[in-house]
Structures are given as C-alpha cells and as structure tokens.
C-alpha cells in the first residue's frame, strides 16, 4: 500500500539580490530514520522519506543480495515509532546466511582497517553480464523526461526529492518512486517492480540521481539493461557499466542526451 508523506507549510523568509525580504511558505522534503529488520535482526538504518516503505524494504533486500526474488520476502510490517520508522520483514532462501554473516561481521568490526580491505573487494566484485538488448531511441528518453515531471509530487512540492522510473522502450513510464535519497528512490522502484512481478527489461530506468557506480550496480543487479541519468557519470560508473554491458545514457535533458556506453 502506498502512503503519501505528510507535508506541512513552513513559514520562512526569502531574500532577493536587491536585499528585499518577503515571507514565503515552503514544504520541506520528509526525511526520517528508517530501521530495516529482517528475521528479527537489525540490518541497517537508512535516512529516507517514509513513503512506499514496503517497496523500499523489498528493493533494498534485493539490492543487498539478501533476496533473489520478491517471493523470498514476506510479512512486511511497518511501524512509526518516536524516533522514526521500523520496517520488519521475513527472509527465506540463501539470503538468510548472508544476513546472519553481515550481523556477525558488524559486531566484530573495529577501526583496525580489515573492514576497509573487505569493502574494497566488494567494490571490485564482478557484475552479472547484461543480456543482449535492443538500443533505445533518444526520442524515447525525451518522452520519458517530459512525462516524469507529472509523476513527481514530492519533488514538485519540495524541490528536494529524487525520482526513479521504469520506462517502456517507447518512453512510456510504467512506475515511478521518489525519496530524499537517490539510492532509496531506485530501491523503491526496484521493489515496486519486483512485487508486481514486472521485469525491468525491455525498457530502461530513468533516474534523477547523480550517476555514481552504486546506481549502475543496483540497476544491473536488478535486471535492467539500460540506464538513463540526468547527470554525468563518474569514471567508475562508466567502467562498471561497460564491463557489464549495461547501456548507459547520461546528462539527459529535454533537448540533448549523452550516449556513454
């Protein structure tokens, strides 16, 4: 079930270049700690917009490799508490071993630097190879960019939220999710699509996020074949996309787009 965030008008002061001041009302983008618990074990606390949390928990578990499919995740329960939100879910399958191992390592971690070696190895681990796919037309990207404006209520109200959308090959948007965090928005989209049993390919993911390597990795591991972002990619994002065979488009604007990989 989707939930809309509570937006309240906040009175603040706008200062203009000539020094004049005037009172204006603005809505702040919702942000709160969201604790994710799987099988009764605390796994992570994320700063997120508290909406579409079922999708978030599902997409997060899939992105983290805790679940292979949405069917591995069940009994999602959401509770608002004094300091934020708690999302509890049950995991089945091979992800249970990874969950328990991560909890054990987190307890044992220290500042000795060993965890840094492990993290570097994690960054370099091979990505799945993206299957052969038809290239998308730039016209489809431009159509999706235009349509996305009407599917960002949180962004329109606050000007401070990221969005991620799945688009058909012709640019028609089938699903869109928003969050204050760029990774969270993509996790919510991945989770929503997985819960509906809808594949990410054919078609493409359109993200308003900075095109970092994490966005590339999440897209590939979720089964996408093409990723479009509105910013330039980092060098590592290009390297990872190229090695996996992910089609990558960047700096997407209403009048131009850059084909990267």
What labels describe this entry?
261 residues; Cytidine Deaminase, domain 2; 6-stranded mixed sheet; globular; 8 helices; alpha/beta; single chain; 4-stranded mixed sheet
Task: Give a quick rundown of the structure.
The protein is α/β, with parallel strands linked by helices and 261 residues long. The chain has 8 helices and 12 strands.
Question: Helices, strands, pairings?
Answer:
Elements: E1 9-15, E2 21-27, E3 32-38, E4 41-48, H1 53-63, E5 73-81, E6 84-91, H2 95-108, H3 114-124, H4 138-148, H5 153-158, E7 162-167, E8 173-179, H6 182-195, E9 204-207, H7 213-222, E10 226-229, H8 235-244, E11 247-250, E12 258-259
Parallel strand pairs: 3-6, 9-10, 10-11
Antiparallel strand pairs: 1-2, 3-4, 5-6, 7-8, 7-9, 11-12
Explain the overall architecture:
The structure is a single chain. This protein is 33% helix and 28% strand. With 261 residues, it is an alpha/beta fold. The chain has a domain at 138-259: Cytidine Deaminase, domain 2 (3-Layer(aba) Sandwich). The strands form 3 sheets. Strands 8-7-9-10-11-12 form a 6-stranded mixed beta sheet, with helices on both faces. A 4-stranded mixed beta sheet has the order 4-3-6-5, covered by helices on one side. It is globular. Residues 108-114 have low confidence and may be disordered.
- Number of helical elements: 8
| Helix/strand/pairing category | alpha/beta
CATH class category name of the domain at 138-259: Alpha Beta
Q: Kindly state the mean pLDDT as a whole number?
A: 89
Order of helix and strand elements from N to C terminus: EEEEHEEHHHHEEHEHEHEE
- Sheet with the most strands: spatial strand order: 8-7-9-10-11-12
């Amino acid at each position: 079930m989707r939930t809309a965030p509570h937006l309240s008008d906040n009175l603040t002061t706008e200062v203009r270049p000539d020094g004049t001041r005037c009172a204006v009302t603005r809505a702040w983008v919702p942000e709160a700690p969201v604790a994710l618990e799987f099988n009764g074990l605390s796994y992570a606390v994320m700063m997120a917009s508290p909406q579409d949390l079922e999708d978030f928990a599902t997409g997060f578990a899939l992105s983290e490799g805790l679940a292979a499919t949405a069917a591995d995740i069940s009994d999602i329960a959401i509770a608002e508490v004094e300091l934020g939100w708690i999302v509890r879910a049950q995991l089945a399958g091979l992800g249970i071993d990874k969950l328990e191992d991560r909890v054990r390592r987190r307890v044992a971690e220290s500042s000795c630097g060993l965890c840094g070696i492990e993290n570097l190895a994690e960054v370099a681990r091979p990505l799945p190879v993206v299957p052969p796919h038809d290239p998308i037309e730039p016209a489809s990207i431009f159509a999706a960019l235009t349509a996305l404006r009407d599917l960002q209520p949180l962004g329109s109200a606050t000007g401070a939220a990221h969005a991620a959308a799945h688009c058909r090959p012709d640019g028609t948007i089938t699903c869109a999710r928003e969050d204050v965090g760029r990774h969270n928005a993509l996790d919510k989209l991945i989770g929503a699509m997985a819960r509906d049993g809808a594949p990410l390919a054919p078609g493409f993911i359109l993200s308003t996020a900075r095109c970092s390597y994490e966005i590339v990795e999440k897209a590939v591991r979720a089964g996408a074949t093409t990723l479009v972002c509105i910013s330039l990619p980092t060098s590592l994002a290009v390297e990872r996309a190229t090695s996996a065979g992910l089609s990558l488009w960047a700096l997407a604007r209403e009048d131009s787009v850059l084909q990267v990989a």
